[in-house]
Amino acid sequence: MVPVRFLLLIPLIALLNGYGVEARIRRYKWVVKNEFKSPDCYRKMVITINGRTPGATIRAQQNDTIIVEVTNSLFTENIAIHWHGIRQIGTPWFDGSEGITQCPILPGATFKYQFVVDRPGTYVYHAHYGMQRDSGLYGTIIVGLPDGESEPFAYDYDRNIILNDWYHNSTTEQAVGLSKVPFQWIGEPQSLLIHGRGRFNCSSLSVPSSDPGLCNTTNPDCSPFRLIVVPGKTYRLRVSSLTSLSALSFQIEGHNLTVVEADGHYVEPFVVQNLFIYSGETYSVLVKADQDPTTNYWITSNIVSRPAPNTPPGQGVLVYYPNHPRRSPPTIPPAAPVWNDSRPRMAQSQAIKARRGYIHTPPAVSDRVIVFLNTQNEINGRRRWSVNNVSFTHPHTPYLIALKHNLTHAFDQNPPPDGYDFLNYDIYERHPNANTTSSNGIYRLNFNSTVDVILQNANTMNPNNSETHPWHLHGHDFWVLGYGEGKFHMFNDPNKYNLVNPIMKNTVPVHPFGWTALRFKADNPGAWSFHCHIESHFFMGMGVVFAEGIEKVGKLPSSIMGCGQTQGL
Fold it and tell me: Which of 121, 149, 153, 479 has most Cβ atoms within 10 angstroms of its Cβ?
C-alpha cells in the first residue's frame, strides 16, 4: 500500500510538471555559435543552435509560456532572435528585433526571452540582426491546441519542413558588396535546402580546391532530406520558407497538397500540385500516402519569380515504408513551373480564404490608409530600396526604448509620407531620377485604430523588371483584402475588397507590377517592424516601423538596454 503522505504529494508533483493545468512553462537553453557545416556539400562557417541548423523545433500548446535562454558564443558578432508570427501581446520587448525592440545580445552574453504563445499554428524563429538568418540561425515553432480540442481536419501524423536558399559567401561578404560603390549584387543562391539539406554540384567550382573536404558529396551533412510515410496514412506537413531571396514552388511528385493553414489561421481547403511559398510564410498541407507503395517519390523546391538557371532545385525523397530510405525514385524530378509566369502565383494568393466557422470579420472601414510604393533607388551612388522614396535606416537606440523614455533625439521625429503621387507616377518605367533619401522616422498609429496598408510594386532600376516582395508585420496579424495587377486605384479598387472571408496572415507577397491590400487593428502596444522579408532588401532599406499605444507598454526590462542612448537608463 502507498503511504498516505505520498498520495498527498501526487497533486503537487502533477502541478509542478504541468499536468492538470491549462498552460505550461516550456524552457529551452540555447548556445549560439559558429561551426563549419556542409549543408549542401560545400563547407562553410554557419551559425548553429546547440550544434544544429536548423535549430530544434519549439513545441508548445496554446497559452503556454516559452522561456529561451540564449547564450551568444559567436566570437565577434551580436545576435537577436525574432519569434516570427508570435504577437508578443504584453511583451513587446521580447519580439527580438534588434534596433526596434531591443539592444543586441553581445558576444559572451546570455539573454532570456519569455513570452506566451497565445494562438495555435505553425510559426518560425530566426536571427534578426544584420543578415544572419542566411547563416543558418532559424527553426520552427509548433503551437498545438489545448488538451481536448481538435483541428477542423483529420490527419494521422504531423511533420514539419523548412525551405531555404543557401549562399557560400558569408553574410559579411554579402553586406560589403551591397554597400559598396559600384554596387555588387549578391547573385542567385548556390543551392536550395530542404530542412537544412541540399546538393551543390562540386564539379562546378570555378577554381578546384586542393582541400578534398571543401566540397564533398559523400558528406552526411548533405545527404538528402527523407520523409518516411506509411501507406494509406494522411500527413500534416507544416511547410515554412525562410529563404534569403527566393520565392519557391514546393511539390511532392504524384501527390496532391491540400492547403489547410496559413500563418496560424485555418484556410478553406483547396488542392494544389505546386505550393508557392514566399520568405516568412508558413503553411500546413495535408498529404495522403495513396500512391504505389513499392516506389519512392521526389520532394522538390524550385525558384520562381527570378531567373536562376545555375541554382539546382532542392531535392528530397518521400519514402514509402518499408522501402529502403536510400532508394532513389525511379523517375526524374518533376518539372518546375515557368519562373516568370506570375498568373498561377497570383491565382494561389487569391484562393487563400478563411475557413468557414473560423472567419474573423474585419472592420467594415478603416481609419487611415497608407500606401507604400516599393522602389529601387540610389543614395550617393549606393543602391537602396525605398518606400515612398524613403530608405529606412536603423537608429542606434531601439525605438521601443526611445519612445517609452521619450528620447526624442534618438531618431527622426518627422514621420515618413503616407503615400506617393499615384496619379502621375508610372510604375512600369525606370525613372530617370533614381535618387532617394534615408530616414529612421516612424509611423505613429492611434491606438485601436483600423489601418489599411496598400503595397504597390513598381519597376526596379533595371528596365522591364519588378520583383516579388514578401512583407512581414511584427506584433499583428492582418486581413488580406485583395491583390491586383498594375497600379492600385484609390477609388475603384477598394470596392473589390474581400470583407466576407479574408484570410489573416502575418506575411504576404506583393507580386511584380502588382498591389496587395491589408487591414489591421493597431491594438498591440509597442513598436513594430513591417518590412520586406528578403534579407538583402531589408538590409538595403525596405521597411518601416509602426508605433502604437506606447503609454500602455509596461516597465521595460533592463536586459534589453545597453546600446545607444539606453546606457544608464
Answer: 479
Query: Do residues 238 and 142 lie in contact, with contact meaning Cβ atoms separated by under 8 Å?
Result: yes
With 0-12 / 13-18 / 19 or more C-beta atoms within 10 angstroms meaning exposed / middle / buried, residue 108 is: exposed
Q: What pLDDT score does 22 carry?
A: 65
- Cell 496619379 belongs to 423
- What pLDDT is stored for residue 568 in this prediction? 79
Torsion, CA 287, CA 293, CA 294, CA 297, rounded to 10: -10
For residues 260 and 271, what is the distance between their CA atoms, to the nearest angstrom?
Answer: 9
Beta strand pairing call for 514-521 and 526-532: unpaired
The C-alpha atoms of residue 198 and residue 248 are separated, in whole angstroms, by 15
User: Which residue ranges in the chain fall short of pLDDT 50?
Assistant: 1-20
Model pLDDT for residues 499-542, shown as the tens digit of each residue = 999 999 999 999 999 999 999 999 999 999 999 999 999 999 99
Q: Which residue has the cell 525606370?
A: 430
> What pLDDT does residue 210 have?
73
Q: How far apart are CA 145 and CA 45, in angstroms?
A: 38
Q: How far apart are CA 508 and CA 500, in angstroms?
A: 19
State the Cα angle at 285 between 502 and 343, rounded to 5°: 60
| DSSP state letter for 145 | P
Q: What share of the chain is helix, strand, coil (3-state, %, to 5)?
A: 10, 40, 50
Distances from the Cα of 209 to the Cα of 35, 42, 166, 202, 214, angstroms? 20, 11, 20, 10, 7
Count other C-beta atoms under 10 Å from residue 491's C-beta: 6
Burial class (CB in 10 A: 0-12, 13-18, 19+), 210: exposed
Long-range residue pairs from 44-49, CB within 8 A, at least 24 positions apart, any chain: 44/168, 44/170, 45/135, 45/170, 46/135, 46/136, 47/74, 47/79, 47/127, 47/132, 47/135, 47/136, 47/137, 48/136, 48/137, 49/137, 49/139
CB contact at 8 A, 117 and 143: yes
**pLDDT at position 561, please?**
97
Give phi and psi for 51, each to the nearest 5.
85, 5
Instruction: Report the side by side order of strands in the sheet with 543-548.
Output: 443-445, 543-548, 526-532, 469-473, 507-510
Q: By the 8 A CB rule, do 483 and 516 touch?
A: yes
- Report the alpha-carbon distance of residue 331 to residue 296 in Å, rounded: 9
